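Moderator note: this is an archived Q&A kept for reference. The question asked for a predicted structure of one protein chain; the sequence and the answer are reproduced below.
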Amino acid sequence: MSSAADAFANALDGVLVVSVEQAVAAPYCTSRLREAGARVIKVERPEGDFARGYDTAAAGESAYFVWLNRGKESVCLDLRQAADAAVLERLIARADVFVQNLAPGAMARLGFDSARLRRTYPRLITLDVSGYGNAEAVAHLKAYDLLVQCESGLASITGSPDAPGRVGVSVCDIACGMYAFAGVLQALQARARTGEGMALAVSLFDAVADWMCVPLLQQEAGMRVERVGLNHPTISPYGGYAAADGRQVVFSIQNPREWQRFCTVVLERPDMTADPRFVDNAARLANRAVLDIIISGVFGALSHEAVVARLQAADIAYGSVNELATLAGHPALVRERQMLQAGEVDMVAAPVRVDGHVVPRSRAVPGAGEQSGALRAEFSPHQRPIA
């Protein structure tokens, strides 16, 4: 690994993160902090994070858990017991960042609300991850990814014209975790200047609501935002069309030059460039049904390879609607080997490249409470807290 990549991978060396976490959103945030070099101590309930039991797809372990918890240390604590609550207090006393995403109000009932922690430890950065934030009408609600996809309106604009659909990955959890990670990095930068920590809060709803800004503004401006399947709601043509073998190709026309090349090279219909029904994007949107029939007629007479060849010749952006099996062998996919207790799996490599190189992030996945003994000893009452 180059010196730049090493510096990148250890940018948060010396930062201690303590996280009472479960499921996806908070673990996503702390996994990225760990990949940046922070030490992350994961506090689990005595039976472990329930995400450990989501499936057995990763050599007998949960795919979600393996993805989000590599390199962390695990301690199992029953925070209803005074002795274990005292262990958590000592962990927090030495932490730079404290993260939690338990059910609404749970940490406050246990005496670990962020307001109290901020008063006790002025340099501490606290992060509360919730479903709906602090608005009184909804703060008490439990939230999971699909519920928030529906509550936020995301499901209403996802899917086919016949029915709403779920985005195929836990997009609300992931969005929330990404914003949380960015927020912690900003807070650490601010603390480096001011010496003071701060209380952060991120919710699944707020995160995906930010992503919903464009359709919300369009709806409030009187535009009709509809589910259009594999089509773009406001650009035409921009969507999926089946070739003769049934495999769909998605392509996008973004400007007049591309439209001219598409008509001439792909459709072999240069006359369409002057057709008033298709003269610009607004006209094409108004006449999308007719245009789709024309495009489908041309594509349906060609093989997938022939469609792709024409799009390449016209320099039109395109993609194929691939199955997961195709993703596994995609030339752009970079993977790294992850060793697990019962075997090994090929994980997707970190997406950020440094000097053109992948920064390795394969680290051991902790068993539930694997470091409990060592951490209880390290953070015992007889150990002097770090100032």
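Archived answer notes: The first strand starts at residue 16 and ends at 20.
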